[in-house]
Amino acid sequence: MTSDVTLTSALQNNLRSLQKTTGAERIHNTAPVSGNVSESATADIIRQAAQDFCTQTLSSRASELTRLLDHLSQSIKTLEKASRSITELTDIIREAESLALEAQKAGSGAEQETQLGAIKDRIISIVNNAEVAGINLLNGDELKTAFGGGERNAIITEGINLSPAVLNFDNLSFATPSSITDSIEIIRSAMDETQSLRLTVSGDLKDIQTRQAFTQETISTLEAGGKAINITSLNEEGANLLALQTKMTLSTTSWSMASQTQEDVLRLF
Hints:
- The protein has 269 residues and is mainly alpha-helical.
- It has helices at residues 9-22, 39-106, 110-113, 116-128, 177-227, 231-252, 260-267, and strands at 142-146, 154-158.
């Protein structure tokens, strides 16, 4: 006569869970099914809920990154506008330097000096038109590009005021050799300031564009993952994990199994 199996409640729960997850007919559960919903219908509900949860989680993260992508795109527009404006400004400063050098060769430059007013007007126009969404790096504004995850995870682009007054262009004079020499120094100092901002803008622009490309790839991956979730594979992994857990539990307690029937249960795994 076969002895009755006496297992702990924890082992019984593991075995029953394993039976529900994998559909293993080898383990017989004599407990009656209560309620009006069958086990297969319940499994379908759980499976669908899990799928919805995973899909919504991936979709939510993709939405967060999409908002971040919009922020990065705005910063890129600001930096690209600043870069184009700096290029235009560089050409104008070179024109001013050429006029000063011409005046230096002649010893004076009354004719060249008459062109300085137009040069300053063009600089003012370029600086004023460099603004994007209220931020003008050529007017000394600051651009903060946050990547999420705290204050440290951000790029701060410091602008430089390149207006004629700040560049000291109001003091340009080609009237005497001494004033021409001073004017050349002023112009070259203005060029140094302009190139300093160019380096800052180009470096930050490259970093943000790299982050933009990475963010876009991540969004595409999340969206594809949300569409390709395979709950069946998740069920299989869950069943394997539960089977391993149950096997380890039975193995560690097998020494206390007094009946041959319990040993037979252990051999099932």
